[in-house]
Design a protein that fits this description.
Order of helices and strands: HHH
Radius of gyration: 30 Å
Helix content: over 70%
Oligomer: single chain
Shape: rod-shaped
Structural class: mainly alpha
Number of strands: 0
Number of helices: 3
Largest sheet: none
Strand content: under 5%
Distance between the termini: 17 Å
């Protein structure tokens, strides 16, 4: 029997054990959850930086209003433009805060999944060697019975 065949039989034996199958499924689920929440946290962080850049650009433009006294190309008075830019600044601040909350929530879920994954992998690491030994004992008993 080839090594690949022997390994395939061992895997079948391991997957037949309900505890091993449960732990395997849990490890896979937690790895997926950890990856997904990591991606969400990274996306929220990128969005935060995007809104931060927009806010900074708005502040620069707001500074130009006070230097020029008005934005003639818009046909609006200084007071109205200042009000609009103030509203924009508040909107960017809200957008930044919303992204920080999203990143925080995703990071919190990631952290819990990472801790749970560590525990599940430790349990998986204890169950697998015991099952492998049981498989080897069974194989040896079958071989001895066949002789």
């Amino acid at each position: 029997m080839s090594f690949a065949d022997e390994y395939a039989r061992l895997e079948e034996f391991l997957k037949a054990d309900p505890e091993y199958a449960r732990l395997n499924s849990e490890v896979d689920r937690l790895k997926k959850l950890r990856h997904e929440t990591s991606c969400k946290a990274e996306a929220a962080t990128r969005n935060y930086h995007k809104w931060m850049c927009c806010e900074a650009a708005l502040e620069v433009k707001a500074g130009d209003i006070y230097d020029d006294g008005h934005l003639g190309f818009l046909g609006l008075g200084c007071d109205l433009v200042s009000e609009y830019l103030g509203d924009g600044e508040k909107m960017f601040e809200r957008m930044k805060r919303a992204e920080l909350v999203k990143a925080g929530e995703a990071s919190q879920i990631w952290l819990q999944a990472d801790e749970d994954l560590e525990i599940a992998m430790a349990s998986h690491g204890k169950v697998r060697p015991a099952l492998v030994q049981a498989y080897r004992d069974k194989q040896a008993a079958d071989k001895e019975a066949a002789q």
